[in-house]
TrEMBL record:
This is Zinc transporter ZitB. It comes from Pelagivirga sediminicola. The chain crosses the membrane at residues 24-44, 50-71, 91-110, 122-146, 167-185. It is found in: Cell inner membrane. Its main location: membrane. InterPro entries: Cation_efflux, Cation_efflux_CTD, Cation_efflux_CTD_sf, Cation_efflux_TM, Cation_efflux_TMD_sf, CDF/SLC30A. Keywords: Cell inner membrane, Cell membrane, Ion transport, Membrane, Transmembrane, Transmembrane helix, Transport, Zinc, Zinc transport. GO terms for cellular component: plasma membrane. The keyword GTP-binding does not apply.
Length: 295
């Protein structure tokens, strides 16, 4: 006997999407607007730190727009071809964002090696003012993305990590500019760029690992099938066995579980299902459950 009522997606809460969509749009506008200034400033000053940050901001702008598109698509209802709707597009966007972080970090490392082997003149004054402006823009964008309670959304976190990489790039460019102004030692520019690239790689790995786990239908965070089965057996009256437990996430906010249960003779199947759903929701944070009763 299959419980079809658990398949209703119409009640899924998308109330977080408009706020997240607005955050992404603001961050994209700020990033895109200042990107050109960093490109011009980096070329004029000869600073790799500024050029690297500008390249990162270019990637960020494209990634933020992709994330924004993900939220726009997630608002569309499910159809006969996509019965879960378009929510997972935002996870795919986060995965692409993470991969792009790897690419930009690799480019920064390569360019830094070239600069260290062949030092170039850097105009510290121009670099300083551009870096200060970039720092201010990135602080505002990061604040917009992380304020409120939507920071746990994987797509917003991926976007915030991009902006954090930009922010660190601006800090590195600022420090490099000050050292160049005070000492004239230009190798500090590519050296700090390498430090930023390493930080970016660390952030990229987290985003790719988490989004890839969801795309590969991995179990939701904190979900241990063995512990869940033991808990249900102990807490649900009349439940003899739980088998074929499968858990995955459409998005980070939409974990789902399917299972086959066996009941003691004379047990009320409807009451058992209700008890299982209530336990999974309250104890494990899973509100969408499909239950099949065997026998």
């Amino acid at each position: 006997m299959q419980d079809h009522s658990a398949h209703d997606h119409s009640g899924h809460d998308h109330s977080h999407i408009p706020k997240n969509e607005t955050k992404i749009a603001i961050a994209a506008a700020l990033t895109g607007a200042f990107m050109l200034a960093e490109v011009i400033g980096g070329v004029i000053s000869g600073s790799l730190a500024l050029i690297a940050d500008a390249g990162h901001m270019l990637t960020d702008f494209a990634s933020l727009m992709l994330a924004w598109l993900g939220f726009r698509l997630a608002r569309r209802p499910a159809d006969w071809k996509r019965t879960y709707g378009f929510d997972r597009f935002s996870v795919l966007a986060a995965f692409v964002n993470g991969i792009s972080l790897f690419a930009i970090a690799g480019w920064i490392l390569w360019e830094a090696v070239q600069r260290l082997s062949s030092p170039q003149e850097v105009l510290g004054g121009v670099m300083l003012w551009i870096a200060l402006g970039g720092l201010a823009v990135n602080i505002i964008a990061f604040w917009v993305l992380t304020r409120g309670g939507e920071g746990e959304n994987l797509n917003v976190r991926a976007a915030a990590l991009h902006v954090m990489g930009d922010l660190l790039g601006s800090v590195a460019a600022l420090v490099a500019a000050l050292i160049i102004i005070w000492t004239g030692w230009t190798p500090i520019d590519p050296i700090l760029s390498v430090l930023v690239a390493v930080i970016i790689l660390r952030s990229a790995w987290k985003v790719v690992a988490q989004s890839g786990h969801i795309l590969l239908e991995g179990a939701p965070d904190g979900f241990d099938r063995r512990a869940v089965v033991g808990d249900l057996r102990a807490e649900v009256p009349g439940l003899r066995d739980v088998r074929h437990v499968h858990a995955w996430s459409v998005t980070q906010e939409r974990p789902m579980v399917t299972m086959v249960i066996e009941l003691e003779a004379g047990s009320d199947a409807r009451a058992a299902k209700q008890a299982i759903r209530a336990r999974l929701d309250e104890r494990h944070g899973i509100g969408h459950v499909t239950i099949e009763v065997e026998g």
